[in-house]
Write the C-alpha cells for this entry.
Amino acid sequence: MSGDLEVSALAINVTIPEALRWTDTRRGEAFTLTTLNVRLLPDGRLAAKAYGRPVAGGRGAYVSFPVPDRPELAELVAEAASRAGVLWAAHRGLD
C-alpha cells in the first residue's frame, strides 16, 4: 500500500516564544504574531506563515502574515520541523 500512498501535506503549529514575537499591520489594524504554521512541501522545503490576534483585543479575524527573514525565526522553524519529524517517526498508530 505505501507505494501507492500520496501524502499531500504535512503541517505543524508552533507557538512563537514571547521574545521572538512581533507586530504587523493589515488593513490599518495592528496584530501581534503568536503562532507559526509550518508546512513541509513535496520537494522537502519548508514554508511558514505567522498568525496572530489584534493588538486592540476583541474577536478579530485570525489573519496570516509572512514570516520576516530573521535568523532566530528561521532557527525556530527548522527546530520545530525537526522535532515534529521525531514525533511523527515515533507514532504508535491509531488508538
Observations:
- The mean pLDDT is 91.
- The CA atoms of residues 21 and 36 lie 10 Å apart.
